Structure formats: C-alpha cells, structure tokens
Amino acid sequence: MLLATSKEMQVIDQSAAKDFAIPSLILMENAGRGATDLILRNYKERLARGVVILVGPGSNGGDGLVIARSLFQQGVKTEIFAFCREFKGDSGVNYQIVKAFGIPIKWCLDEGDLPDLKDAAEDAGVIVDALFGTGLNRPLSGVFEVAVELVNASEAPVVSVDMPSGLSSDTGRPIGPVIMADMTVTMALPKLGQVIYPGVDYVGGLEVIDIGIPKAAVRKAGIKTLLLDREFVTETLRPRPPEGHKGTFGHVLVIAGSRGKSGAACLSALGALRAGAGLVTVACPVGIQPIVAQGLKEAMTEGLEEGDDGSVSANALARLESLLAGKKAAVIGPGLGLGDDVRQFMCEIIRTAPVPMVVDADALTAVGADHEILMNARGPRVITPHPGEAARLLGCTSADVQRDRVAAVKMLSERSRAIAVLKGARTIISAPDGRLAVNPTGNPGMAAGGMGDILGGIIGAFLAQGYSPWDAALLGVFLHGQAADRVAEKKGPFGYLASEVAEELPGVFREYINGRIHHC
Prior knowledge:
The protein is of the alpha/beta class and 520 residues long. The chain is built from 22 helices and 17 strands. It is elongated and about 85 Å long.
C-alpha cells in the first residue's frame, strides 16, 4: 500500500481537479460521508449522547461540516464549534448548507468562547476533530491549544479527520500540542506520519477511505513509499516449481560466531534454513565449529583460522574467499567479535565478496563511519542496523536516530549505496534511489537476543533464492514480524525465543503459497 506525504497529496488533489475534472467539492462530500459511515459503524451506541465537531478554517473543517450535516440527518444531536471567523471556498458552501439545516454553530475566536466547549466535550458521546489536516506546519497555540487540552481531557472517543490536529503527516512527530485520537479517518491514502512512531500513538485506529480519486492521479505523484502488507507479500513471494531441488533455492554462506557466541551463528543459519534456502554453510572459528555443527544439524560448517581471543583471524581471508565460490548469498557479522584482526577480516570480505550480502551486527560496527567499504563493495549489500549501530554508521547518537528515523534510514542508504533496514518498532527500509517502506508487523516481545540474527538469515535466504536486495529485505522484515506476531498470539506477549519465531516461518509461508504452484 502506498504512503503519501503532504506534498504528494497536494499533487494528487490537483491532478484530480485538473486532469480528471473532479470538483474538489465532490471530494469533500465523499470524504465527509465516508467518515460519517465509519463513525456510525464504530460508535453507534455512543452517538445516542450526541456528537461535538470541532472545525477549522481549511478544507479539513469543510470535511467536518459535511460530517455534521450527515450525522444530523441521521438524527444525531450535533454541535459544531467553529475555530475561524469565516469559511471560504468549498468549506463556505458546506457552511451555508449547515446553516440552512439549522445545526447549532458556536464560534470559538478566543479563549473566552471555550467554556461551552468544555461542557459539551464532557457530555458528548463522540468528539470529531476536524481542525487541521495534513498541511499543518506550525504548533497549535492560543485558542487551538486550549481546545486540544479540553478534547484530550474528555472521556469521549475522539475521531480525527485525515490527521490528529497538531501531528505532522510527514514525520509522525507532534508540532506542539496534539489531539490524541481513538480513530483517524484518512483520505485516499495513509500518510507516512500515521504509521511510524510516535505518530502511531496519536492516530489510534487508522481507517483509509476511498474518496473517488483516480488511480492515474495517484500515479502522477510518483510516490516511492510503501506500507508493507499482505498484498505486497502475495504479489512478491514466488511459489516454488514442483521440479525444484536444493540447488534451485540457493546456497547461503553465514559468516558468524566466536568463542562464547556460537548461538548467533546457529540462529542466523536457522533463519536462512527456515526461510527456504536450499543449502546453508556456516563459516566460523574452528574452535566453535563442533558446537555449531551439533547445534544445527541441517547446516554444513567450515572452520576458519582463529586468533587467541577465539575470533576469526585475518589470516582466514583466503580460505573464506574460496568458500564464497558457488554461493548465491552471504550473511556476515552475528557474533564475530570486535578485535582488530576480525574487524580487518570483516571489512575486507564486505568490500570484496562478489555475492549479495547481508551486513549485520559486529560487521556493521567494524565498518563504522567508513562508508567507502560499502560504497565500493563488489556485490549488492543489505545493512540491518539497530539504532545504536545506525548511530555509529552516521556518527551521531541513538537519540538522534530515533528522533527522526526516516531521515536516518535515508541517510544510511544514500551514504552506503546499500539497502538499509533500520530495525525497531515499525522497521523502516530505504533504498539509495529514494524508495522507502514501513513494516507494520512485529511486537514488543521481539526485543530479545537473537531476533536480529534470525532476520539476517531470512534476508540472506531470499537473496540466495534470487530475489532483488529490495524485495529480499522487505519480505524478510514483514514475514519475520508476522511470524513473531503468531508466536505472541500462541505463547504470550513476551518471553518467547528467537528460535521459536524461526520455527513459525513455514506456517506463515503456507498462508501465501498454499495451493499456488509455479511452473517454469
């Protein structure tokens, strides 16, 4: 599903009017009626106590006026609080209609006008926030700020029209005081700021309504941002040819592990196997090779020369280069360690390996801010940092990364020329060409050791099966999160293991592949 920014929505609206001769008044009517239907469907019993609708001066307020008239016609007690001196354009037309219907309107031009709103909000069954939509670019102040406080203090459910007033539709960050909505009804397309944190916390339940904008008008906006969904997976995940064999589905080389960290190697290999790689070989320090072989019998192992600290020695480069021959993809980093020798080893392999490669964990720390290593790599790279690793790559703090995750992941992909996967709640994926994707799957129970190792293996498996680095990253992140959601439903919200998430993957694949056979 496409995600739109405020500028892209402007292009879409302009195209609908200019290229398809659709009057904006019709779009406003469709928006208001669509929102009304959702309000009636979700809050029918609450509406017996009446509805309070806050309308602002722009088109968002016009949507609110349509909602007011539509609910009034359904017999709902309706009160409008108008935060402007006059309505213009399409909103002005709908004001005249509302006025003719005799719907009560109270004008809120300064704080002295707000006591009535306080009383109405306390008594209302539902409050509709139609103050400001996607175009807001400055903090709410004065009478608007007080109104937000009164609405948030009410016990009535709040429905925001298009955006919770005060929330940036592009960044998901508050622009000063913000309405805390229970449901947000957004028009045509979801907005980026609605599906990333902290915006998710303000939006409540998100509903997208079709207001009659042609698909061609949407295409004209050139949107490059996706909200991953089941439709994407269904269209992208290929069923397997019935005549396929283990060689058909690629051989992944997992370069991982060190003394005391054999589990990272096993988990990464497990992720690759459960995601359908035909073959998986783990290249690890020779000292832990028996442990890895015993821990995951389905994977092959190769021992690499190790140093005194139990990490891979830089002398293992030649051996590793020979192991890469015939492999379709590689994963490097989980549990490899951070000694000087192994750092040198990792950086050289990242730079020289010709196969698609997932660069994760210790390998990201080894690269640090030296983006030339990734930019000059011989093959495609997918980097999978958590916020701390992203901060080291960007030369900033984790707080800086979390403050604007979209900007951070874009910068990561631009500087590295790699597909960047910024892990965390609502993982974001970015490509150097400007494509962006947000993943809605996953849950807080995934904040546990080994989850990233599994993900790296999953993405590596998709690379080995011939998916593009972009599709491999998107499929890996979405399906990893979905598997974790299924485990959480069965076992509880946290306390489950990374290996249990991997075990759930075949069942997740069945949802998309069952009954579909691909013939070459």
